[in-house]
Amino acid sequence: MTLVLASNSQARAALLTHAGLIFERVAAEVDERAVEMTLEGTGAGPDDVAQVLADVKAIDVSARHPGALVIGADQTLSLRDRRFHKPSDMDAARRQLSALAGETHVLSSAVSCARGGEVVWRHVAQAHMTMRPLSPGFIAHYLAVAGDNVLKSVGCYQLETMGIQLFDTVDGDYFTILGLPLLPLLGFLRREGILET
């Protein structure tokens, strides 16, 4: 069976590649902010939002590739009642890092698998990320060195690179932090006979 990743994320593709999976990549055609707006006022929390977005991405690509098993994934970042999105520019990244500095935020990472336009499996996991206090000078230095890559991440960091310098403690699975709860996904793929047991 063809396996498809419904994502343009280099990090997610690298995780699957390093795990030995052979797959195609097809970007989902989903307006994430529009999907989130449909959830406003429903009581949906960050885990729910991440799961719905992962579902919608998997379903979208699965409907266009009915013979494939499609993996959709999404991640939300929340600090208490506030949910963050990818920053639009470096000034937004600076403001976001200032808000997260010295605080513990939660990453909710969801993965969904769809076949024939229907979700057949889903999973969501959390990681708790405690940023150290960050001076304005360090934030400016970090943004200058990390560059536009910070705009690709909801938290303005890639933990696998210089972003690790932002943190005091990390409580959660590494794969969840990178945006794809990989171990549960591999377990599902083994049960489906896609991976060797």
Task: List segments where confidence is low: pLDDT < 50 over at least 5 consecutive residues.
Answer: none
Number of strands: 7
Largest sheet: 7 strands, mixed
State which percent range the strand residues make up.
25-35%
Spatial gap, N to C terminus: 16 Å
Q: How many structural domains in the coordinates?
A: 1
Global outline: globular
Structure classification: alpha/beta
Helix content percent band: 25-40%
What is the helix/strand order?
A: EHEHHEEHEEHEHH
Average pLDDT score: 95
In the CATH hierarchy, the architecture is Alpha-Beta Complex
Number of helices in the DSSP assignment: 7
Our Rg estimate from Cα atoms comes to: 17 Å
Keywords: Cytoplasm, Hydrolase, Nucleotide metabolism
Cofactor: a divalent metal cation
GO molecular function: nucleoside triphosphate diphosphatase activity
GO cellular component, one term: cytoplasm
Tell me briefly what this model is.
This protein has 7 helices and 7 strands, in the order βαβααββαββαβαα. The chain has helices spanning 10-18, 32-39, 46-64, 90-100, 136-146, 174-177, 182-191; strands at residues 3-5, 24-25, 69-79, 82-84, 104-115, 118-131, 167-171.
